[in-house]
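=== RUN LOG ===
request id: a7f3
mode: sequence -> structure
chains: 1
length: 126
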Amino acid sequence: MSTKGGGLADLLRDFQKDTGIKSSAIVSRDGLVMQSQDLPSGMDEDIVAANAARILFLGEATGKELAKGELNQVLLQFENGFIALAGAGPYAAVMALITPENKLETGAILFSIGILARRVKNLLSG
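=== RESULT ===
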């Protein structure tokens, strides 16, 4: 658990308020939940965090192998919405669950996730 939990919680709360996202989390690169906000009940946060970290790792490794540069974001599209992931520095990543009910365009949400990732990185670095 992060010692900066209050700051991380504030970042997630503000992100959700600004975008209409209902669920988000900050996870460590080794797959632990650092902070979450309104994740669906009944889900195992630890499994989701571990899988999110694994997906980012695989994306980064694939991009490196193909000489594509640094990974910015991963967007997983499902029948009932999206999961967006973005690296937030060497120690963390952000995750957002985007449902069809979200009023904001997906592109605008992805832009906001990039901003959130930078804010998390800055908070954890400072």
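=== NOTES ===
DSSP finds three helices and five strands in the chain.
The beta strands are 23-28, 33-37, 73-78, 81-87, 92-98.
=== END ===
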